[in-house]
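Narrative of activities, Objective 1.

The group set out to show that a structural description can be obtained from nothing but a protein's sequence at a throughput compatible with the screening campaign. Below is one input-output pair from the validation batch, recorded exactly as produced.
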Amino acid sequence: MARIATGMLVNALIRRAEGAGGGAMVLARGDATAGAVLLLLVDRGANPRFVERGLGPDGNPALIASGPREFADEGEVTAYWRRRRERDSDLWVVELDIVDGERFAAETIAMN
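Output recorded for this entry:
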């Protein structure tokens, strides 16, 4: 089964978020064709948490929780995704600021 290029999925996510009154910003660009996607989800700039596109236990595409559950400050958030980029330069890092960001992202990128 063919997959949509990662760059196209990220662009679709950004456009959908902006159209729904939220915002999205690429913090780091990865491989445009097949890079992994790490999402920093926030709601009005608060409650940062990470999810990434992967395979769920049933083998279907899903968003999987990643990283610490709580961060002391914004510096820890940035340090986490930068460490991930050091290990995987193809990784995309996208900040998504929208209500119910996990559901919103799943509708756009986890099902492709």
